[in-house]
Amino acid sequence: MLPETPAPDAVVLAERVRRVVAALRCVHEGREITMSVSVGVAEYRLGEAAAQAIARADEALYGAKSLGRNRVQCHAADQRQPVVAPAGGAGRAADDAIRASSARLPRGAQCDQLTGLLNRSLLRDRLRHAMDRAKRNRRMVALLLLNINRFKEINDELGIEAGDALLSQVGATIRSTLRDADTVARWGGDEFIALLEDLGFESDAHRVAEKILDRFGLPVPVAGRECFVTLAVGVALYPAADCDLDALLKRADIAMREAKRWGENSVQLYSCDTAQPQSERLALKNGLREALAKGQFFLEYQPQIALIPQIDPRMPEARRVIGVEALLRWQHPVYGRIDPGRFIALAEETGMIVPIGDWALRTACLQNRAWREAGLPAIKLAVNLSARQLKEPGLAARVLAILEETGMPAHCLDLEITEGMLIEDLAANCTLMNGLRESGVLVSIDDFGTGYSSLNYLSELPVDILKMDGLFVRRLGAQERGRPFAIAESIVDMAHRLGLQVIAEAVELPEQLADLAAMGCDAAQGYLFARPLPPDEVAAVLARQDEAGPAGARPAPPLLAPLLK
């Protein structure tokens, strides 16, 4: 660091150092060894963070090294005179080459050709230097590995060119969210890495990751369509015990995979507990059949609450349960309670999702009958269908057979299917859903807004209910109703115009509930009302509600009104 020294003077000094080093000669075991040095120069700007100047100096150094040994390179943003090169005729020629190459550097071999971000090779160099500085300065470095969820679906549906365009937009959005001193690289495929230096606390990295996720709250236009992009973010910190460069990258990857298991737009910080035993995936995969046979699966039920017009939804007496969503759980004898995100994909792979799905539907219908036989009011029961189940021949016949076997009224069953699954084979799925609806079964579009959100598809699908994804709900509740409110309100209005009812998911705050009621949303579910409950606790809730009296004259959504009688 040279105080009060402009970049051109620093370049001259660096050139002197380079010449002195180049003139040194060492003899080792009778052999003469020559030395060379590469130098990167950047000028500190008043008011900026020191890390930003250091990052520019690093970039200049990489530029010097990429052009060969024995070079001095000044960062392009600080360059006010030609870069100094080795003396002599060859030096003048090299000087011309350096100046010509500096303009090409950002798009050269060091950068990903699609996104313009740094590539893996340069990222590893940056990371190595950042780790050295972190150790020397006793400051923290965070490595964020960001993976685009369900990118393959977009690539397959819209084409490779649209996928490439999406990758470029995602990379640019991540880059624009971070500081100039931070490094962003495309790690490969649908993965990006952000390198954050000079952090004081672990929470700083988590806040940056959340900030990135917030930037993807609005749909991204791709090939004339709007796609909602969600990310899984794994965070690894350095310095850390027993951690070198490759270990840090591995830890970020482990954390990212854990984030994917938690669901859309999740951030996970690596800890020793994050790492799963190498045999766990195989053990879970092989244990699915045994789990079904030995009764290790069980269901929990999350209440769905009607939002009654003209009644303040924040008042407890206004919260009337009109349905529950059945959620599958697994109590493993070794790994304990396992959430669906960790085993549903394995069940899909093995085909076990079909018998497990049939068990879940039958069990939920029997439970609904048990509640009715206990004198409790009839409520709607929502059950999720997986992609594999949807493709299985004879699904409609099996559903109707289970309804007859369990004595479950068809109008009380709501089958939830994600929009991405529905449009995969539109004609066949429309035929399937029409057959179910003719029998009285309700059909819902689950997680609406996180897939392709094509209005054309929505107008063709024979469905009854639209479930607004928590991605939209989490952004509600602000003092000033801005874009998030406008988008959610437009979804509700559009659904009503199409004759659909709307249920909002992941409601956690009273302010979010007030916004949903104001825009005319029909029903809601989330931790604000209740977490997923065991059957006996649902029965207690229904019993208390029954004692309080029927809905009476309170107006209710037309589709749900029969369930309040």
TrEMBL record:
Residues 1-77, 139-272 form the GGDEF domain. InterPro entries: Biofilm_reg_signaling, EAL_dom, EAL_sf, GGDEF_dom, Nucleotide_cyclase, Rev_trsase/Diguanyl_cyclase. SMART domains: EAL, GGDEF. Residues 281-546 form the EAL domain. Gene3D superfamilies: 3.30.70.270, EAL domain. This is EAL domain-containing protein. It comes from Massilia agri.
